[in-house]
Design goal:
The chain is α/β, with parallel strands linked by helices. The protein contains six helices and seven strands.
Length: 192
């Protein structure tokens, strides 16, 4: 996948001037769940900055390819940043999510159950009629049996706020490349 252009904003006036793209896909999840790492892995290049410290992504980052526009968002949750910056993020992200992407990749750490913030985001996305693809990250940190058990537990928890017969999801490993092609195919199918 070839990168055609990229830019970042954290100012609502600028965001309002950026044209809306047909296949705009937003990466969203709690801080340090692996949004930027997943994006870099899909692109086979280190384009988005990553860190072990939560809160590295500080703006709305647009990455345009021929087929998609990927949007890397700041995480929600426990990033250690000033309260004023969190409030600024919250306002512009809410504006962005409400008005722009049709597909949200909601990233969830497979090792943990969905948090209150995760469940709130899912409920919000349903309210605004957004398509959702759940991506379970950090699967390589669990043994295969543990992965299976955690997927079942997570899907059970998700069904309480996302009551569909079939929940669209993907188990992803950046270390092994597991499901890269499958994830791109699901993104393609859901973004139509």
């Amino acid at each position: 996948m070839e990168l055609l252009n990229s830019f970042v904003t954290l100012i609502q006036d600028e965001l309002e001037k950026i044209p809306s793209y047909d296949n705009e896909i937003a990466f969203i999840g709690r801080s340090n769940v692996g949004k930027s790492s997943l994006f870099n892995h899909l692109m086979n290049r280190n384009l988005a900055k990553i860190s072990n410290k939560p809160g590295k992504t500080k703006g709305i980052h647009f990455f345009l390819t021929e087929e998609f526009t990927f949007v890397d968002l700041p995480g929600y949750g426990f990033a250690k940043v000033a309260r004023s910056l969190k409030e600024k993020w919250s306002k512009i992200i809410h504006f962005y999510l409400e008005s722009r992407p049709k597909l949200l990749l909601i990233l969830l750490d497979l090792r943990r159950m969905p948090s209150f913030d995760d469940l709130q985001m899912i409920d919000w996305a349903r309210h605004y009629d957004k398509k959702i693809l759940f991506v379970f990250t950090k699967s390589d940190k669990l043994k295969p049996k543990e992965q299976k058990d955690q997927v079942e537990k997570n899907l059970s928890a998700l069904k309480e706020v996302y009551p569909l017969k079939e929940i669209p999801w993907c188990l992803y490993s950046i270390k092994t490349g597991r499901c890269r092609k499958e994830l791109l195919n699901k993104i393609h199918d859901l973004s139509q």
